[in-house]
Amino acid sequence: MTPSEYLETVLWKYFVQxxxxxxxxxxxxxxxxxIKNWAGTQLRDLAFSGSSAKGTPVKGTTDVDLxxxxxxxxxxxxxxxxVFDKLHVHFVANGYPAARKQNVSIHITHNxxxxxxxxxxxxxxxSGDHWLYVNKSNxxxxxxxxxxxxxxxxxxxxxxxxxxxxxWRQNHGFDFPSFYLELAVIEALKYARAxxxxxxxxxxxxxxxxxxxxxxxxxxxxxNIISDTLTLNEKKAISxxxxxxxxxxxxxxxxx
Length: 256
What we know:
This protein is of the alpha+beta class. It has two domains: 23-149, Beta Polymerase, domain 2 (2-Layer Sandwich), CATH 3.30.460.10; 156-253, no CATH class. The chain contains nine helices and nine strands. The model has no long low-confidence stretch (mean pLDDT 95).
């Protein structure tokens, strides 16, 4: 078995079904009425986002990401913090007592699946720009465009390498935000060819050497610095493990 063939077996091990009829699709549709009841006439759109929309899901990470787009005039009567807090209270009161606040999402579990609910208020123009509340920052809100994120990642040609990086992240227990990871993998492989094993080693090499000092910005808003979501010590821990993984003699010790 070649290294690339081995990595294909790892990808298959972590394969997650997506699309109509998938567990994520069934769960999203089951939760939708609770969200619609909360949002009422302010609901602009409700859509799958995150890895399921980008084509990068792996088993063991959040199973469902739902993007809750509210109309722009929501901010006439509520702050973003109030929107965020009220969504949390609503799910606690409607059968999800373990609902918890994360950075820009409310996390719940439904029938054994992890679900992240991302409330956002539309910017009020013809684009897909939205305001998000940031729970773990001194900034109350950030402007971004999830549609641009999805398009960038899904059309990158690096889906397999991104999935392997997510599996590697999971193997080592790192809290490495997915969009940050996706941007880093795309950057690491911007001149690479289609060789899965060589490319993944290139990703580890980038994580080990250039990653901790590289600056990544949100392609939808250059004022949103994605690389600031990890501390320097957290970045250095990722770099140290990537260096160690890159020097392993057996592929089964690099990613599994």
